[in-house]
Amino acid sequence: MNQRLSVDPSLLAAASAGDPAALDAVLRAVWPHAYRIALSILRRVASAEDAAQNACAVLMHAIARLREPGAFGVWVYRIVVREALALERRAPAFDELEPEAFVSTSGLSDADVRIDVLRALASLTSSERAAIALHYYGEATSTEIGAILGMPNGTVRYHLARARKKLETLLDAHRPACTLKGAVRAD
Q1: How far apart are CA 59 and CA 64, in angstroms?
Q2: Taking the domains of the chain in order of start, what are their residue ranges?
Q3: Does residue 173 carry a pLDDT above 90?
Q4: In angstroms, how far is the first alpha carbon of the chain from the final one?
Q5: N or C: which end of the chain has fewer CB within 10 A?
């Protein structure tokens, strides 16, 4: 399943030029990706919707300044992560969790397994959650994640490795039934 954000360059050009229908189409293409990344960072439905909406508003006002259409996905993810982390700093309490956003529940009937996965993800730092979300949900490479988070590639790889190790340790009891969505792939 391809999760990578991709928008037709001609549609981006039209949106940049002020075509309202093209802008609407771009925002419709971006929304599910923005929401999913924000939800994986914030773990709260209402906050994720707010962060994704804020990111779309920023995108709407800044799209005319997009210089490199090939970097659109990285640019959007950077905006989403920035908005999600800013929202998390303002309201760090998490009380509304959505397990399906984080784990593949096919074949899982035990609610305790889902709760364990949520707790494991909650144990990650914001940077680790963002790196994991961008890698697995956004299919971003470590180089792209570094550009999005403003970190060197080595730091991104460290966050990914540390997050995977934490998750493996916490979820070991539930293998093989419990997995993060997406496949592990080399950068």
Answers
A1: 9
A2: 9-174
A3: no
A4: 17
A5: N
Question: In sequence order, what DSSP letters do the residues of 113-168 get, joined into one string?
Answer: HHHHHHHHHHTS-HHHHHHHIIIIIS---HHHHHHHHT--HHHHHHHHHHHHHHHH
Q: What percent of the chain has pLDDT over 90?
A: 35
Cα–Cα distance for residue pair 128/159, rounded to 1 Å: 5
pLDDT tens profile 31-66 = 999 998 998 888 888 889 999 999 999 999 999 988
CATH topology for 9-174 is: Butyryl-CoA Dehydrogenase, subunit A; domain 3 (1.20.140)
Secondary structure in 3-state letters for 69-117:
HHHHHHHHHHHHHHHHHHHHHHCCCCCCCCHHHCECCCCCCCHHHHHHH
